[in-house]
């Protein structure tokens, strides 16, 4: 049975060590950085929706396509295949696999692009809220 432990403090680290000591032969252990959080996810989808509505440089894309464009700009493997309706659709790297840091970078790229294109954001950046 797979189990997940988030290493927040000494107690969780001790539990993880005990689980490793008790693991059966050939067990697999994977340690990864923290995954993106719900606030990041909500902010990003609001941003790509804003960009989609703004149609910068006359580019008309769905938020999903904008997501793939920004993922490609960040160096993540994204490719497009031709759909049954002869329209391209994205396949490949899923943003749900991004770490918190990777997702923050994705948000930064989208923010910089949108700012450069004059996108009107539906939600202000956290830094701007603090100064208001």
Question: What does the model show?
Answer:
The mean pLDDT is 88. The chain is mostly helical and 132 residues long. The radius of gyration is 19 Å and the shape is elongated. The protein folds into 2 domains: 31 residues, no CATH class; 98 residues, NinB fold (Orthogonal Bundle). The chain is built from 5 helices and 2 strands; from the N terminus they run αααββαα. A two-stranded antiparallel ribbon has the order 1-2.
- How many domains in all? 2
How far apart lie the N and C ends?
A: 50 Å
In this structure, how is the largest beta sheet organized? 2 strands, antiparallel
Sequence of secondary-structure elements: HHHEEHH
Placed side by side, the strands forming the largest sheet appear as 1-2
- SS class: mainly alpha
Write down the CATH topology of the largest domain.
NinB fold
How many strands in all?
A: 2
Strand proportion, as a percent range, falls in: 5-15%
Low-confidence stretches: none
Gyration radius over CA:
19 Å
In one word, what is the shape? elongated
Q: Descriptors for this entry?
A:
NinB fold, single chain, mainly alpha, elongated, 132 residues, two-stranded antiparallel ribbon, 2 domains, 5 helices
How is this fold's topology laid out?
Elements lengths: L9 H13 L15 H17 L8 H11 L4 E5 L5 E5 L7 H17 L9 H6 L1
Antiparallel strand pairs: 1-2
Helix pairs in contact: 2-3, 2-4
Give a nutshell description of this structure.
By secondary structure, this protein is mainly alpha-helical. The protein has 2 domains: 1-31, no CATH class; 34-131, NinB (NinB fold).
């Amino acid at each position: 049975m797979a189990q997940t432990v988030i290493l927040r403090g000494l107690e969780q680290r001790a539990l993880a060590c005990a689980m490793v000591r008790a693991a059966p032969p050939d067990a697999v252990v994977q340690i990864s950085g923290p995954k993106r959080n719900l606030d990041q996810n909500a902010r990003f989808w609001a941003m790509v929706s804003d960009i989609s509505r703004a149609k910068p440089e006359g580019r008309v894309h769905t938020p999903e396509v904008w997501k793939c464009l920004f993922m490609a700009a960040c160096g993540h493997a994204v490719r497009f295949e031709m759909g049954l309706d002869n329209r391209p659709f994205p396949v490949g790297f899923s943003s749900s696999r991004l770490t918190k840091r990777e997702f923050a970078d994705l948000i930064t790229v989208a923010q910089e692009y949108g700012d450069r294109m004059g996108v009107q954001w539906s939600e202000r950046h956290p830094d701007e809220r603090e100064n208001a």
